[in-house]
Amino acid sequence: MVSATPPKEISSDEEWSKDGPPRKAKWWYSTFHTVTAMVGAGVLSLPYAMAYLGWGPGTMVLIISWCITLFTIWQMIQLHECVPGTRFDRYYQLGQHAFGPKLGPWIVLPQQLIVQVGCDIVYMVTGGKCLKKFMEMACHDCTRLKQSYWICIFGSIHFVLSQLPNFNSVAGVSLAAAIMSLSYSTIAWVGCVSRGPVENVSYAYKKTSSADYMFRVFNALGEISFAFAGHAVVLEIQATIPSTPEKPSRIPMWKGAVGAYFITAICYFPVALIGYWAFGQDVEDNVLVNLKRPEWLIAAANLMVVVHVIGSYQACIFVGMFIMFASTIGGLRNIIKDSSTYSFYQ
Q: Which residues are in coiled coils (predicted)?
């Protein structure tokens, strides 16, 4: 049931900019921010998901997931200004409006924090693995380091980038990440086309036990669903776009989201379908592993993945850190407020 009294919100761009970054983003900012948040290294595992679903079901799930998530991101864009004069810049604010000022944060914040932290952990591991792979391919005589060391090296990059003050300041990083995602996706499917199908390629379902196959199918469905993961920061992205009664922010935001989904389709569908066409049921969970030649190109693709997950990590960590700080500060503020009116001798 929708609350009759929405939470106290900042109703104008001028007031909002006093305590935060100005709303000066253009529609194309939302395009590459959304691409950065959505397209990840998981695109390289889509052929592996196809191997367990097959041509028909796999293609259908890809198309349905693309359509459903495009519709749901449209819903989120509309909800950003569903109350006249109010902008819900954060998920917890929208949760307060939907479930009430007290219950809303308890429903929304834990789930969003789990998603953001979980994504950042995946990005850390993926970035470390791809950085390790790049160095091993680029320098055969170099000393081999453990993967955990490469993860730490990848994490140290964010000590510098985390000093950037706001979401607008990572626009350059996000743009570079979006370009890299399109680049390594293109390398993956073009490499598969140039290589052609492997000898005796088979598109039959993998032979395994019924229980194992069932779990593999659910895992494949999860991989495809997880691939469309840009919703976690859509409100924060829209919050950087100016809005007026004549031109509300939902217009440029939707324009940017459509552009982002077009780029996503260019990345996802060729990699999933052509990768499965080339390797069939023998495709690895990272299609770049199957593509061993030319070595320099595969090394470059791994480096592109590193650059991309750097941008994706920053997009998620800005939201995640805000949630943690807002929750902590808000909790302390409520404790202080309650303690000031509490009598120990009542």
A: none
